[in-house]
What we know:
This protein is mostly beta strands. It has one domain (5-371): Neuraminidase, CATH 2.120.10. Helix content is 5%, strand content 47%. Strands 1-26-25-24-23-22-21 form a seven-stranded antiparallel sheet. Strands 10, 12, 13, 14, 15 and 16 form a six-stranded antiparallel sheet that branches. A hairpin with a 5-residue loop joins strand 24 (324-340) and strand 25 (346-352). The longest helix has 11 residues, at 5-15. The radius of gyration is 19 Å and the shape is globular.
Amino acid sequence: xxxxxxxxxxxxxxxxxxxxxxxxxxxxxxxxxxxxxxxxxxxxxxxxxxxxxxxxxxxxxxxxxxxxxxxxxxxxxxxxxxxxxxxxxxxxxxxxxxxxxxxxxxxxxxxxxxxxxxxxxxxxxxxxxxxxxxxxxxxxxxxxxxxxxxxxxxxxxxxxxxxxxxxxxxxxxxxxxxxxxxxxxxxxxxxxxxxxxxxxxxxxxxxxxxxxxxxxxxxxxxxxxxxxxxxxxxxxxxxxxxxxxxxxxxxxxxxxxxxxxxxxxxxxxxxxxxxxxxxxxxxxxxxxxxxxxxxxxxxxxxxxxxxxxxxxxxxxxxxxxxxxxxxxxxxxxxxxxxxxxxxxxxxxxxxxxxxxxxxxxxxxxxxxxxxxxxxxxxxxxx
Length: 382
């Protein structure tokens, strides 16, 4: 694998070159982006959000056209873009639409900072059940698809089916974990995902060392975990933060130092309470890029009894502790996706509503001054 650390560092520095020194002015603003009933769509769900090298915000999600609910259902993959830090958004664009009750669902987005290519993985679910007669937990017929854009999200490729390359014998299905993938400092592309097996779901990562031409999966982090997000730690380890069915009302965490060939034991992170939902985890800053602190960001509905209380947390020690937290929405809320904008502010696209978490997807933009009540600000070493 070729090392691309220098290239990635230059791109990262360029991406955040507009970061301003601390001015002690808190910033918080939000806009509804996808609202149930608009554009003839009954329900929008499952946000994926990313910032391109040009600073464009790209928001992708499920459009559940005729009725609410997961597949089997008529679900299209749709997108909106923003060129002004989320204040306004382009009209809805359909990225994937299959006939009848087929679904293009649960997107995860990744941007190759070396080539500029935007990749979106999603689950393609057929409009029929597996009639083989085997006793399966997952009887839907699911394949793993990818689409790509090389022009900042203006046009997109036709779907490529990755199932045969990554699904292993004995798995009922292999699925991407909705949210965001990463590119490591040495250039590797990494998608979080999970496999559905007869006894339980297992979380893992899918990676490419040739800019997305081919993909591989190694061993899994363990059973009874699925929808996950991945981040590269400053010591080079990859950390998976996972939705857990291990009996604790919190997130589960595992790390690997060999790209998922082996995993350290899963631990339950009681600092991240949750009632079985998706969450988002990203890196905000890295000391190696000239910032004064390492920072990770995390978001989820922080409640052990239901999907409410959308909360953003901040860690200064690579996820060991989360001393900063702030509630974005106290009411019903569910899936979310974080990103860092070109000016260093933070973006969050999250499901929320008044009576249900699935009424709309809202984009919130805020800075460290707001998140930390003035105790922290984005500064760089001169």
